[in-house]
Design goal:
The protein has 179 residues and is mainly beta. The chain has two helices and eight strands, in the order ββββββββαα. A hairpin with a 3-residue loop joins strand 3 and strand 4 (44-46).
Amino acid sequence: MAHRHPDPRSGLVLDTHELGRRGGGRKEVSRVAEAPEDIGIAMIGVPPGSPIVLDLAIEAVVEGVLVSGTAEVRLAGQCARCLEPISSTMEIDLQELFCYPDKELDDPEASRIQDELIDLEPLVRDAVVLDLPFTPWCRPDCAGLCPSCGANLNADPDHRHDENADPRWVGLTAWTEND
């Protein structure tokens, strides 16, 4: 898999130069980065440009650099039942080993350090998408929409319709009304 070169200006790219290549070096990283495009699914996701609050530790180990910590993201979307807008925050746990480029690995998809830079975007994207609800709801007891007219049943819980008569029997209703 071809990896794109990390942009050092991105808030989701970390510089590992200070750690060196000896095991044991450690650095705490706390920063706010701007969310890239397309983190999410059709009904809910992270708005592009919204803040991603990172609280991380990066540690030099023999194979590469271990990144661990948390990221807090803002979510925005639409309730799958009533289609009302929803928003919340989500904290995700992050942990990934970024391998040095010259290390031989069994996994060709393993995360790699490129020019002493670590790109957290794929890690954050995967962690967020895996934790998102497949069908987000505005609340657990959301009543949804009326299947007949589309009215929001949360706003009008007593919403009712007259029972629809089968069109094949409409001609017979006049007989019962004349009796």
